[in-house]
Fold these 2 entries.
Entry 1:
Amino acid sequence: MEVRGHIELRMTFTDGTTSRTVSIKYLVVNAPSAYNILLGRPTLNRIRVVASTRHMKMKLSSLEGTVITIKSDQTEAKKCYENSLKSKRGVFALTTQPPKEEGVIRAKIARERRSKPAEDVLEREISRKMFKLGKSLGQKTQDQITKVIARHLDALAWSASDMPDIDLDLCHRLTMDPQVRPVRQRRRKFNEDRRQVVRKETKKLLKAGHIREI
Amino acid sequence: MCVDFTDINKACPKDSYPLSSIDALMDSAFGCRLLSFLDAFSGYNQIMMHPWNKCKTTFMTELSCYCYKVIPFRLKNAGATYQRLMDRVLAPMLGRIPSVCR
């Protein structure tokens, strides 16, 4: 039996009316089995399950304190049992292959979903400003991009002073509940280090024209 | 440094202007050979506050009182206004080439 690694899944137990979701860590094995998932005793103990094989039922409490009863289907259970008898017993033995590192499976899933990032970037100076261009672009594309950037350099900003104003008709208007009374917050007291930071920051904002004194 | 806008944010009802959905952006990017991303330079700070509302963003420091002329960060509905502005600016091209993601 090949051990593939661990995977943590969020399982929801429900009887149709109430439900409870718990995160359960599973050991993934590559083996023919009649069951997709086997809940281990640690998990059953953790979520305080009361199981009865005789009644083919499992009870656990929801977070609100109500009881969730999970019933089993007799025919389905019978089929599963027969299947488990059919599969050759005794072939299940742990292979010597070391289990893959934890999280390998999750990483694999994530890798399949995400697109790959571009390769390394290289720095390039255009009109005394530094740019980062992807290495995979090829010399020709790089040159073309450089040309475009050099032509539209005024559209890019490095500091607040590089930004021209936006029309006032596109300004941010506060819509306020007219019934709300104005609040005057108390002035916060800071230690010297923080005060220095505040002084520096306000100076910066003033210089950029983002704030003004009242 | 950040200004505590909790009170002013509480007094403002939420602007429910729709923000772009990431899934839709991903779908529209499908099949493109080249994607380029532009990062707006402190985007909110480029949009002016309405002259009547400036005084509402007033904050105190040990030296003096200041108010914001531009949208400060942490102000509610700033994202909605930004999205609205970007949608208007790029309206002729939107859906065809660029998408705006806050």
Entry 2:
Amino acid sequence: MATSTTMASAARRTGGIDRQTVKPALLVLALAVLMSVVLPTVDGKTAYRHAIHKGEIAELADGITLVPAPGWDLTTGALVGRTRSPVGSTAATELVAGSVRFSVQAAPFAGTPSALLRRINEINADLRHARGRAAATGRHYRVTTRHRVVGVAENFVGVAREGSVVAFVFRSRPTAGSQGRPIREGLEIVISGPDDLLSRRRDEIVAMIRSIRTAS
Amino acid sequence: MSTLAADRRRAIEQSGWGEDFRLLQPHNLAFWVYGVLVVAGAYVVSGQVSIAAAAYSGALFSGIIAFGLLAVAYLWFIHYGDRYTSVPRNLSAVGFVWGAVAATGAFALLGNDAVMSLYAKAFGASFAFDWGAALAAPIDEELAKGAGVLLLLVLAPKLIRSPFDGLILGAFVGLGFQISEDISYAWIGTANAFGDARATSVTIVARTVASIPSHWMYTGIFGAGLVWFIGRPDAPARRRLGGGLMLTAMLLHGLWDGSAAIGGNSVFGWIVPMAVAGALISVFVWVYDSTEPIERKWMRELMAPEVALGVVTPAELDALAGSRSTLRSYIRTQPNPTATERVLAAETKLAHQIARDDGADTAAVQQARNAVARARSV
């Protein structure tokens, strides 16, 4: 009996694998390949089709806006008047132009711009240490928006990219969660890319930083 | 063979009770695919965890502790729902690991990012901001978790015998995914708030409050739908119902993720998630109520010969194989409810032993019968 069972099992196998298990297992494997290999590859080869037009404004956080340079692509974030979901006090925005990235992280922050930049540097140092990557940073300097909000910036140089980190702390408009008090909103702006492309986009980058303001 | 014995025999065969689950099955391709994708998922997830441990270790460990405790509570609850333990613990653990590691790392993390980025490229970032998560996650994540249920169906065909088993196993897979996602949100919240640890507390509270209408329910519904769609030897395929349930899980997941955009900026924005949560819980309860009676029928057929032997009383069998309200009301009306619970627990163990020994009158079955008698005499 045992021999006939073993023979029957062997007859159902190819290369030591039960044939009836092959189809569902391969279906699952194909789904994993589709999601983790095919889709990211297709995404990597697909270009943005919705470049920023003149007059469009990005909402960095609830009540804080930036005027993006026309022609850049908004990859993450929201344009004023174009979304149904509210933009909260913690939000991410990213603009790209070729290999140049302009990313903004907004979140409530009670300290000064210098304190925010110090916090960002501490976190980045921990991350670089864990990843074994090095980057040199330069001296701090002041950056001022058109509405006279003063931030602190520093430049950095890494192996493949270089750029700047700018920290601002804005007084945003009161929200339901802040009990009527204006909240202090920190902004971390990271501009990075190859040296020559950063130089070419310098005026647009400066204009975007200077355009940041709170809604009146 | 008497009718009772024949019914018992059929119940053991149909239910799969007493079958052991063994993950190590070298002749089963599902075993190799499971192993490869869990390893691949662990590699991706460990990359994330190493970032969190380097810069946000406090948030990471707070998340692990808080959501670890939440996992224990839900594991108990789902196990409680699986009244006769039709899904063995090692099988549910294998499902949980799939959800926590493979479905996240080998499917959803990369797939979701790619799909949401493609939406931004095709329709603009504002569209992706509103609808990206609602149109990406329900498809990617339900398929990723459902793939685990399918693999386990191939690995344990004798154990997953009914849509109820699909519901319970799906709930374990979904819970694994949910806890993994919760822990990642705990430290990502802190990362997005410049390392402010208070963001972790907010995330923990919010995700705990929203943990009922979540992945364990979506995947439970999806799992029951998958078993109905494929069919089992004693539960014929019902493709429309099965497919409908799988789509319902995806649809409700999408509505939940899109509730901020659907509700908009109005003061009634909270109504949408509440309505979705209500619908999800209703569907889950309906699936549970529709699929659970077969388990009770099997229990009745399995234990009926014990009534004939005088080991179990007819009233006890009615309670054992009755609905939960029948069971509760039976226990409540007994002179000593605690002793009654002990007897019923011993009788449930006897049922498992009978199934494990294939209905034979073995020494172990006799010992289990003696345990029932001892519980009754205390």
